[in-house]
Amino acid sequence: MADDALDQFAEKWLRLAEGRALVVGSKIYGGRQDRRTLYSEAVGVDLEDGAGVDLVHDCEEPLPAELGTFNHIDCVSVLEHVKRPWKLAENIDAVLNPGGTIFVCVPFVWRIHAYPSDYWRVTSQALDVLFPSIDWLSRKYASGPFLRKVVRGMKVGGQVWMQRSELVGFGRKCA
Length: 175
Hints:
Layout: H1 3-13, E1 21-24, E2 42-46, E3 55-56, E4 70-76, H2 85-94, E5 96-109, H3 124-130, E6 134-143, E7 155-156, E8 159-160, E9 165-173
Parallel strand pairs: 1-2, 1-4, 2-3, 4-5
Antiparallel strand pairs: 5-9, 6-9, 7-8
């Protein structure tokens, strides 16, 4: 999704809980924004070390107890890269305080892209299954810009290119 579309969704829907934020999938790829800077007190966790990463950790495993709990979780472009997204969801839910907020963005229609691998596409109903304790205040499918050159039904460089569509959601953990 184009960054401006994310910004528009955030401006309209995100009313973040005050306090600590956990940025899941915080490694900065290709000059992307360091999402930790969006929050006053943030910790970035990623499977791989690199810029934007405070803790290297596989979030399919429980987060270290010394990390503490958070009032907000930011999970942008992560769920599709996790072998067992239900485990990641369970583990980040465990560190989200009651009344805390969560922002999720995940491709719905897009090309396969490996960072390091690409496993899933997620629907709005899947968010209910993955995050049963979250009251989703908004869930939207949004289309992003055309990727490279859009050629309907044709291959470019061996891949079919299509318009990117993402599922974005904002919710609050039930007390």
